[in-house]
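anyone seen this seq b4? input:
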Amino acid sequence: MADAIPQGFRTVTPYLVVKGAAEAIEFYEKAFGAEEVVRMAGPGGSVMHAEIRIGDSQIMLGDEFPGQPGFGAPSTIGGTTVNLHVYVEDADAAYERAVGAGATSVMPPEDMFWGDRYCKIVDPFGHSWALATHQEDVPPEEMEKRAAKAMAQMQQGD
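predicted toks r here
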């Protein structure tokens, strides 16, 4: 009998729908050091299903299928509501690598109140990624103080 969760997977696995899955795989390899694990061809040279690994995490992806509910790319549906959060050894280097590979900067790296060095990019296929390096464990009382200060600064436009 097979394991309920296949080897190499975690309980939750993101599935990205893109326009141009083959190009997306190439981008993820350049930007994030992804490794292609599986690719299944679809009609007309499309990618019906693929799996990549970034670090110890598996991500599934495939080309959109117009008219199929839930299989529209961000550019087709007008954006994404999902943000993929990736912990890396060096957020600054990961940010530079992703932008160099063609990602759009949303927020350059900065130290955040919760203890991470954090930045955000959007890949050329419309998916939002946060890249972070955990720098310190912040006690709850300190986190609350830092969060209040950060929110006040945001409201002032700093």
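The first helix runs from residue 21 to 32. Helices lie at 21-32, 74-77, 91-101, 140-156. kinda curious what u guys think
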